[in-house]
Every structure is written in C-alpha cells, then in structure tokens.
Amino acid sequence: MRAPLTLAAAAAAATLAGASPASAQTLTEGHVDYAARLVDGRLRSLIKDGTRTGAPVWREPAAVTFHVADAARVTIPASATFLGRPGDTVWALPEVQRAGVLWAGWNTEELSGAQVDGPVSWRLDAVDGPGDVTLFQSGVFGEPDVLFRSADGLPDTRTVPLGTHAHGNWVFSHAGAYRLTFTMSARLPGGATTQDTQTLPVTVGATPTPTPGAPGPPGDGGGGCGTGGAGGTGG
To answer: Does the record carry Signal as a key word (predicted)?
Structure first.
C-alpha cells in the first residue's frame, strides 16, 4: 500500500516539480549571487536568485541567462586602462546596486567550517564570446582589485573565505552572447577535494532568448541578500 505523502515530502515534490526546461530564467535586474553550496556531500556552484520578492531561488547556472542590459553601458575613464582604451564603451554590472541593471555578486555563506576545511577556490577557466571580461572591486584607496581578467589570459583563480558575500564590477568589452566557465573547489574535512565546474550564459546588449535548463537542487531559500565583505585573495 502506498504510504501517505507527508508535508515535508510534499514540499520537496513541489520544489522538484519546478525542475523543467520551461523554468529557465533570464535575469536582468535585481540581486543574484554565484554561490557555493554543499549538496549530498559535494560542492555545487549555484545561482542564488534574489531578483523577485520572497525567498531566493537556487538555480543551476546553465538554467539562467545573465542579461547585461544597455542601461549598463559606460565609458572607460582615463583611470581604468586595465578595462581597455579610455573613451571606449563597455557594459558593466555595478558593484553597488543600481536600478535597471543586474546586481551580481558571489558568496560562500551557505558553507560552514564543519562542512569544508578552509576557503573556497573560485576559478574562471574560460570565456567564450565576442570580447573580454573583467571582474574587479574598487579598492580602499582607489586602486582596482581585479579578480578575473580574460584579456591577459586564463585561468584566473580567487580564494574566497567562508562566510563571504561580496559584489564587484562585471565588465564586458563588446555586446553579444558569452559563456563563462567557472570552477569552484574546496577541501572536505577528511582531506578529499570536491569541485564543480559550471558554465554561465551571459547576453550583453540585446534582449536574450532564455536558456533551457532547470532550477538547482531542493533546499531552503536561505537568508535574504545582505551586505558583503571583500572577496578574499586572488592570483
């Protein structure tokens, strides 16, 4: 005889029911994080989507498209030659939240010292697209703190301490469709390394077609989107 469906099982089933290609999301405005989370004992890279009212939704990176709208167009200042030629136009998702554009960050808030031993390594492996990609934070004394810069070669790696929630400037040199491949890795308490490689679709400029995919594994929405600190050390 079939066992009755408990409230907990019903909630899990409802979460899994959303895992269909029709659930693909194009994210254009609001708060999102590229986040690390432990699922079934393995590190996972997931998108924490806080762009809508209510609890954030966890999504697979391949199931979303980050849309960098034309509202994100800026001119490179003379002080930022690492982004290209001063006076040229680029598209930049801002470090500080601004209406009309996506506010993209990263976090390791879902991980504890009991789950992983030490920080998370976050690596940009490859950029497939029409231009260069740079992710940087504004330094305390005005000097940029560059996490990733495809123009001078990849991979680039950043060490992100546990408990980090940070934001930066995501800069794209040309309009078009990009695919950013990232790897997050960490060491488990037993000494083994766990890692996850995911590719994030990004469309710069014109309104994109949603990318087929599905939300991530079930779990609570976690806390709201709070303030963040520095993103750790890079290399």
So the answer is: yes
